[in-house]
Amino acid sequence: MQCPARLRLVVxxxxxxxxxxxxxxxxxxxxxDPEKETVEQRDARMAWWREAKFGLFIHWGVYAVPAGTxxxxxxxxxxxxxxxxxxxxxxxxxxxxxxFNPVMYDPEAWVRLAKAAGMKYIVITSKHHDGFALYDSxxxxxxxxDATPYGKDLLRPLEQACKKHGIKLGFYYSQAQDWTHPGGxxxxxxxxxxxxxxxxxxxxxxxxxxxxxxxxxxxxQYDIDVLWWDTPVWMTKERADLLRPLLKxxxxxxxxxxxxxxxxxxxxxxxxxxxxxxLDYDWESCMTMNDTWGYKSxxxxxxxxxTLVRNLIDIASKGGNFLLNIGPTAQGEIPAxxxxxxxxxxxxxAVNGESIHGSSASPFRxxxxxxxxxxxxxxxxxxxxxxxxxxxVVPGLRNSIKSARLLADxxxxxxxxGGGDWVIQLPATMPDPLATxxxxxxxxxxxxxxxxxxxxxxxxxxxxxxxxxIEQPSYGEKMQVGxxxxxxxxxxxxxxxxxxxxxxxxxxxxxYKIVAELRLANNPSGKELMFDLQLDGGEKLGKNVAGLxxxxxxxxxxxxxxxxxxxxxxxxKRRTVGPALDARRIRLVPQL
Length: 592
Fold this sequence. Notes:
Blueprint: H1 5-10, H2 12-21, H3 39-52, E1 54-58, E2 69-70, E3 73-74, H4 82-85, H5 90-95, H6 107-116, E4 121-127, H7 144-147, H8 155-165, E5 168-173, H9 203-221, E6 226-229, H10 237-243, E7 254-255, E8 284-287, H11 305-317, E9 321-326, H12 336-352, E10 370-375, E11 378-383, E12 391-394, E13 401-406, E14 415-418, E15 421-425, E16 436-442, E17 461-464, E18 469-471, E19 480-484, E20 487-493, E21 499-506, E22 510-520, E23 530-535, E24 540-544, E25 554-563, E26 566-574, E27 581-590
Helix pairs in contact: 2-9, 6-8, 6-12
């Protein structure tokens, strides 16, 4: 039975129910449930994505019209959330669509820009939380074809351009949060909370009448390789199970971990941060170039090209992918600062791309001068800090080195053994200040003697910032590494999800006092500031450090611990949000 087009909007629940009870297209027979596929099948399906390493995220929609401003007021937060942050009524928000007219849209230019930047895939918002679709949906008039003067599908031309230039394509779809269709979830975890009467409705009806048929549309009508779910608010396993059968429409499709119902998908998606030591599952770190995903006219806090390049390297060195975002305007233009940065990253990738694409994670635990990737019997050493003496120490590498060369121009570099480690002799000056890459060909499978921080001559252990794994928060302000008096410190530590961690080896069992070198950058409120240290995942040693003198380094004692011989980890983390804190070093002092 086929539902008449006019009735689909009125009674889509009936159509969806019939579809669920019926059979899927013939291609569905080739579909293998990711929960049941073999390792070999999964590896084959994920192969292109793992090789790609670098992709372009595009957040685009009606929110580009207000561009962060509502009734003359600059609304705090990310641009695409302006409807929620400003509590804009549905009718008023929908009126913005009359100003969404992307006549400057050039999908082929977008794809060429991404490809020149070294990106291998694109993921675009087919529908974001405002419920607005970038294609002609048959179950809603809230889409680019029906609601805007532009009146044309934005996704099909992008699909065609991607095919032409050999770029994989993915669609982001907000399956649960929908602020315009009745019943769609809101950011609140409590069902039934809305800010406009027009939003009221039944969430399950919304899933069946809007989310289900729209996912069916994008999977059935477009040739995509990735489906990027987002924000599983109110999504139980039963609700996720309504949508999962649709994946049969696209055998080989890659999905992320944001559907809900405890489904982990094919990849984890850390947002606005890089996991300190990577993850034990396929993962993709998504980040903005400034502070917003959707276009916000006055957000000029742009990351530098150096930061973007080094983030890409850092992510690749930990085995992940980098999905870097742009937010086009309502006229269909990519902001000039985004273009400039993508072009600059592309220049670096044109020279050094082989060290990123198809690479796997570093075999080293920690490198004080930069990062490492590896593939095909080569180590790619990405140098961020050029050694003053000209000798780059490669710690713990047991293999013989066949050759070492600058990737940029092929210059051969001498390698010698020094103190048990390989030392590569470098030119006096750093050829590429963004990151200079050295390709090192080794003999045999890579073998590393992991080198741990360990006891000094006095038996103590000093854990310094340059040897820490830094975990940045996914929100709020980021910590910054600074240097004073020849020593690194971490500054602007405000968020409680930010942390430092160290792995070290103790060779002398006994009692140790833990001392942290801290200072307050400011504390105008004088409110409590709890700081925790945790050894080997055990009991937290907490201290209120709100009373420290501002601007002055202080030794803060956190008590004593019994430390056995062997490898240990120490985690340092804020417990409360508040004034900025700086940390310089943590010492383990033996007690005789």
